[in-house]
Amino acid sequence: MANVLRMYLCHDIATVICTPTRILPPQLELIASIFVGAFAFEVAFEEGANALWDSWNKGRQWKDIRSKYIQE
């Protein structure tokens, strides 16, 4: 209750130290940030690896030579 009152009654920064209220407990914030970071890294790594693979194998993949064999 004191933290909530401090948040709303924090008009004089020199005398009252205002601390932001937390939405989640610190452990949950840590776990959530780890999962979000791991997911973002996995997506970025996958996209980068696919782009590198496609540039190394340009012209040798089915998506590049498909038009020679299939007519739509």
From TrEMBL:
<keyword id="KW-0249">Electron transport</keyword>
<dbReference type="InterPro" id="IPR008027">
    <property type="entry name" value="QCR9"/>
</dbReference>
<dbReference type="GO" id="GO:0005743">
    <property type="term" value="C:mitochondrial inner membrane"/>
</dbReference>
<keyword id="KW-0679">Respiratory chain</keyword>
<dbReference type="InterPro" id="IPR036656">
    <property type="entry name" value="QCR9_sf"/>
</dbReference>
<comment type="subunit">
    <text>Component of the ubiquinol-cytochrome c oxidoreductase (cytochrome b-c1 complex, complex III, CIII), a multisubunit enzyme composed of 3 respiratory subunits cytochrome b, cytochrome c1 and Rieske protein, 2 core protein subunits, and additional low-molecular weight protein subunits.</text>
</comment>
<dbReference type="GO" id="GO:0045275">
    <property type="term" value="C:respiratory chain complex III"/>
</dbReference>
<dbReference type="Pfam" id="PF05365">
    <property type="entry name" value="UCR_UQCRX_QCR9"/>
</dbReference>
<keyword id="KW-0496">Mitochondrion</keyword>
<keyword id="KW-0813">Transport</keyword>
<comment type="similarity">
    <text>Belongs to the UQCR10/QCR9 family.</text>
</comment>
<dbReference type="GO" id="GO:0006122">
    <property type="term" value="P:mitochondrial electron transport, ubiquinol to cytochrome c"/>
</dbReference>
<keyword id="KW-0812">Transmembrane</keyword>
<keyword id="KW-0472">Membrane</keyword>
<keyword id="KW-0999">Mitochondrion inner membrane</keyword>
<protein>
    <recommendedName>
        <fullName>Complex III subunit 9</fullName>
    </recommendedName>
</protein>
<comment type="function">
    <text>Component of the ubiquinol-cytochrome c oxidoreductase, a multisubunit transmembrane complex that is part of the mitochondrial electron transport chain which drives oxidative phosphorylation. The complex plays an important role in the uptake of multiple carbon sources present in different host niches.</text>
</comment>
<keyword id="KW-1133">Transmembrane helix</keyword>
